[in-house]
Design brief:
Elements: H1 2-18, E1 24-30, E2 40-43, E3 48-55, E4 69-71, H2 77-84, E5 101-104, E6 112-119, E7 125-130, H3 136-139, E8 142-147
Parallel strand pairs: 1-3, 2-8
Antiparallel strand pairs: 3-6, 4-5, 4-7, 7-8
């Protein structure tokens, strides 16, 4: 009986793994107009996701750097951005609110990029992503990652 239970469990695990959504990759450009090139992304629950953030700006990094920060549902993005202003020494990622982040890239200056890979939340719904370089979020540099089982 115990052996059958183990075999059934293994088969169930293999079947669940076989139908898992394939990994998805997105390249997002942080633009000088303080917008992301993609302001909406849709993925499946539990899907492996790779985000490559590219900054094509020719401005100095001190004037036009970008990051990509995916926040947990229910996070007040404005409050997060306010806290980020005093976190310059940590790429504008506030340590006091690190528990509100699902994933983020490093802060990248013009001509540079960074990549982050994470597992999408299992809970369906919308998750906000923002750039925390001072002034960028307030100017509109944000987007939505939608987790949907009907991709």
């Amino acid at each position: 009986m115990f052996r059958r239970l183990i075999v059934a469990s293994v088969l169930l695990f293999v079947a669940a793994t076989a139908v898992a959504a394939p990994a998805q990759s997105f390249t997002i450009v942080g633009r000088n107009d303080l917008r992301f090139s993609q302001d909406h992304i849709t993925v499946a629950p539990g899907q492996k996701v790779t985000i490559k953030l590219v900054n094509k700006s020719h401005l100095p990094a001190s004037a036009m750097s970008h990051n990509w920060v995916l926040l947990k549902q229910g996070t007040d993005a404005g409050a997060f951005d306010n806290a980020a202003r005093s976190a310059a020494n940590n790429d504008y990622i506030p340590k006091s609110m690190s528990n509100r982040i699902i994933a983020h890239t490093a802060m990248v200056g013009g001509g540079h990029s960074d990549t982050v890979t994470f597992t999408a939340p299992k809970k369906t719904g919308d998750y906000e992503y923002i750039c925390t370089f001072p002034g960028h979020f307030r100017a509109g540099m944000k987007g939505t990652l939608t987790v949907s089982s009907t991709n």
